[in-house]
Amino acid sequence: MKLQRLAILAFAAFVTIAVHGQLFHPLGLGIETPREMAGDIWPQTHVEGNILYVCTKQGLYSKDLSDGESAWQLAGFEGIPLQDYARRGDDLLAVRFDYNGSYLLLSHDGGQTYEDITPDMFKGEKHGFILNLDCHPTDPNTLLVSSWYDGGIYLTTDFGQTWNKLSPYTPIHVGFHPLNPEIIYEVGGAIRDMETDLHISYDGGQTWQKKWSCFPNYLGIYRMAFHPTDPNKWIAGGNHCVHTTSDNGQTWNTQVFRDYNETVINWHYAAYDNENADIVYMAGDSHNEYMKLMCSTDGGTTWNRPYLEPIKTTPTEIVFDMKQYGDKLLVYSQSDVYEISKAELLAQGQGATSVQCVALTTTGSGTLYDLSGRKMVNDKLPRGIYIENGKKKVK
Question: Count of CB atoms within 10 A of residue 295's CB?
Answer without folding.
Answer: 21
